[in-house]
Amino acid sequence: xxxxxxxxxxxxxxxxxxxxxxxxxxxxxxxxxxxxxxxxxxxxxxxxxxxxxxxxxxxxxxxxxxxxxxxxxxxxxxxxxxxxxxxxxxxxxxxxxxxxxxxxxxxxxxxxxxxxxxxxxxxxxxxxxxxxxxxxxxxxxxxxxxxxxxxxxx
Length: 154
Known about the structure:
Blueprint: H1 2-8, H2 11-30, H3 40-63, H4 69-78, H5 82-101, H6 104-115, H7 120-127, H8 131-153
């Protein structure tokens, strides 16, 4: 869920993507005539990634159509207030400080996957670790940032 949500930016839509990915994953296992999937976790993540990227592309195409008069009000309503901008900047500062506290390898894995949009495989290759370890490093960074945000809000 977190992986799909990070790509899509919306947890509700990420749930739909993960459900579709599981259906496809299950169907792929059934259609392999008894042959096991070599790396099932990697395979499932690839399905989730592809579906999430497809959803994002489809969503952006739908949103890039002509702007109607009623949509202008919706866009204006979606613009954050000055207070929200300050809050977001403060949260961004907390997350940036949290990332600075991490070991270099963990920070690099996070930056490559979450900020640069690289695959876990690319991050793993660059860092000289397995894909599973690259995923663990990214997860550690995300959890560390979330803990710092929680502490900051208390």
